Amino acid sequence: MKISIISVFPELHERFIATSLIARAVEKNLISFNLIKLSDMCAPKERIDEPTCGPGAGMIIKPEVIEKAIDTAETAFGLGYRIFFSPQGELLTQPRIRQLATELFDISGDASPDIKTWQTERASSQPVQPITHLILVCSRYEGMDARVEQYYAHKLISIGDYVLMGGDLPAQVFLEAILRLIPGIVGKNASVEHDSFTGPLLDHPEYGLPTAWKDLIIPEVIRSGNHQLINTWRRQEACKNTLYKRFDWFRAHNPSSEDKTLACSNIPSHYIVLMHDQVHLKHEGIGQTSIATLDIHDIARSSATYGIKNYFIVSPMKDQQTILKTFLDFWRSDDGKQYNETRHRAISAVIPAFSLAEVIEHIQKIEKKDPIIISTSAKIADHQVKIDYNSQGKIWSQERPVLFIFGTGQGLSREVLDQSHYMLLPIQGLTDYNHLSVRAATSIILDRWLGLNQRLE
Predict the structure, then answer these.
(1) Where a domain ends, among 138, 166, 193?
(2) Catalytic annotation on 27?
(3) For residue 259, is it within any domain?
(4) Residue tagged active-site, from 90, 195, 335, 399
(5) Is 348 helix (H, G, I), strand (E, B) or coil?
(6) How far apart are CA 197 and CA 191, in angstroms?
(7) Would you give the distance in Å from CA 20 to the centre of its chain?
(8) Residue 59: its pLDDT value, please?
(9) Which is the catalytic residue, given 180, 234, 343, 448?
(10) Same domain for 47 and 137?
(11) Terminus of the chain with fewer CB atoms < 10 Å: N or C?
(12) 304 is a domain residue
């Protein structure tokens, strides 16, 4: 594999490619590098950049300079697969790195569209072969003329949602990530196969001697010598690490049934309560609302889908509680089960309550811990501590049960909001319409908080 790096500052890459495993790979002739300096593509005293067209400050690299650099690289080593680095590029993740490594170095099965484009440029009708020349184009200043990327780039890559001074560090990050997947560059395959980001779980903690360091002790199970116990512990710790630090990763990378079962065992119990008391009424201040059977059904089904342990319905009115009891008695009976078994299953987790205090006391008795109370609202309310839908780790790492409070009527009263530890940011769409039913809002919130976000492989 020949790798050409086109850069304003190729000297940034000289030390990089002469270090550690990459240097050894060069010594073994697994890879070789060709550094091309953009200023060498210009006449003496000619600038490589020019001001951007239109309003705004900044300089961009001239398209003809990039053209000459690419022509120089391809004259030396043949047509290359060209990668540009840009904040607008495809985000570099471990699954994407693995896919690219397969496409670039060990083509099997159907090639991706950009690989097929590369093959077309070679005017080749033969089966796609592993690419032997990789060209990395590192921009500087405000970047380069957009037409250059449009014309030359087979792939645009971003290494994260931030802006650097140029594309040199992204190119090195890309090389560090992808070259380690080439056989022979990293000594042990296991070092690669069991890394974080190779599946839905991050890696487990690693330890080395001494046993005690700064009053921190290697866990006893690691020192037990029992491989089965050690593997179980490692998987548990990997799961906790992922849930507390990167639940976004877990939910987006197609966990197996076993992974989901393990995750459920490490996520604190979740409860929800629907308040028909202490809520704002349209024109009558604070009061009570009537229980709607549709809310019971739909929120119970959402609760069952997302693993909610119990769904409480609060009303201080005895007549409403009588109606609720009649409803629940039917769905919990054999007749209800025969009529609709899945509805029977969902309704079995519903618990009537006369007050929020009764709900909290019930959870305390079951869990032996006070719940973390999270209130919800259709609008941004004045609350000391707000959280968003990426705050799971902050909440779950406290290892206490979680109680979400939903309001009927026109929303929860100040008295209820003041009892909550956190307030969840409201649901918002692209319009200014904000009048979801409570059952719709509950489903959306549970999905954003506990749902998976699976992707096509």
Answers:
(1) 193
(2) no
(3) yes
(4) 195
(5) coil
(6) 13
(7) 31
(8) 87
(9) 180
(10) yes
(11) C
(12) yes
Average pLDDT score over residue span 403-416: 95
Pairing of strands 155-158, 81-91: parallel
CA angle, 93 then 94 then 96, to 5°: 65
The answer for 71, left when phi > 0, alpha when psi is -120 to 50, beta otherwise, is alpha
What pLDDT, on the 0 to 100 scale, is given for residue 107?
44
Total structural domains within the chain: 3
Residue ranges of alpha helices (H) inside 308-436 are: 318-332, 334-339, 341-347, 356-367, 392-396, 414-419
**12 CB-contact burial (10 Å; exposed 0-12 / middle 13-18 / buried 19+):** middle
Between residues 125 and 1, the one the model is more confident about: 1
> Tokens 């645009």 correspond to what residue?
156
Give pLDDT tens digits for 190-230: 455 556 566 899 989 999 999 999 999 999 999 999 999 99
113 is catalytic: no
Do 346 and 431 fall into the same domain? yes
Any domain includes 65: yes
Q: Among 245, 264, 283, which residue terminates a domain?
A: 264
Range of the domain at 333: 269-450
- Distance between terminal CA atoms of the chain? 27
Could you say which of 50, 63, 67, 87 is catalytic? 87
Tokens of 200: 């839905």
Same domain for 276 and 260? no
Candidate list 142, 358, 367, 447, residue with the active-site label: 142
Between strands 286-287 and 279-280, the pairing is antiparallel
Answer yes or no: 161 catalytic.
no
pLDDT of residue 185: 85
pLDDT digits (tens, 9 = 90+) for 130-147: 788 999 999 987 788 889
The answer to whether residue 87 is catalytic is: yes
**Strand (E) or helix (H) holding 245:** helix 227-252
Rounded Cα distance between 221 and 233, Å, is: 8
Give 363-389 pLDDT, tens digit per residue. Answer: 999 999 999 999 999 887 776 799 999
